[in-house]
Design a protein that fits this description.
By secondary structure, this protein is mainly beta. It has one helix and nine strands. The strands form two sheets. Strands 2, 4, 5, 7, 8 and 9 form a six-stranded mixed β-sheet that branches.
Length: 131
């Protein structure tokens, strides 16, 4: 769990578009979603304004970024409670990779509370292009 003044991505994983079924293998150019489980500590959550998640799909076989996405939005402060959410980021179709290429998601998470910000990052499990 995050500290009372912290925020972090707890888990990051790729799923088939519109589902919660994790991706083990994926066909090149196929749209899919990235899900970031995030948590904001109760003290920070009393002052929040906004949160943002930026996701990149990295092709580890070729050391390139093949797609990106963004999620998040405006937050309403809540008293005496931590915030736990799943943020779904759509990765559009059209990206390309070769069969057998190894992919992973990498994400950064930013929470803004007035003039204060906090950041967190996470990588996903690896998955393979299978067609």
């Amino acid at each position: 769990m995050s500290g009372p003044w912290d925020a972090e991505i707890k888990l990051l994983y790729p799923v088939d578009a519109g589902t919660f079924f994790t991706v083990d293998g994926i066909r090149s150019t196929t749209a899919f979603d990235a899900i970031a489980n995030v948590e904001i500590g109760e003290n920070l959550n009393e002052n929040v304004d906004q949160h943002d998640v930026w996701v990149a799909v990295r092709n580890l076989s070729k050391s390139t970024t093949i797609a990106t996405g963004h999620g998040g939005g405006v937050l309403k402060p809540e008293n005496n409670t931590p915030r736990r959410e799943e943020i779904r980021i759509q990765i559009a179709s059209g990206w390309t990779a070769d069969v057998g290429d190894l992919l992973e998601l990498v994400a950064s998470y930013k929470v803004t509370a007035g003039v204060n910000t906090t950041f967190s990052s996470r990588t996903s499990e690896k998955f393979v292009v299978d067609g």
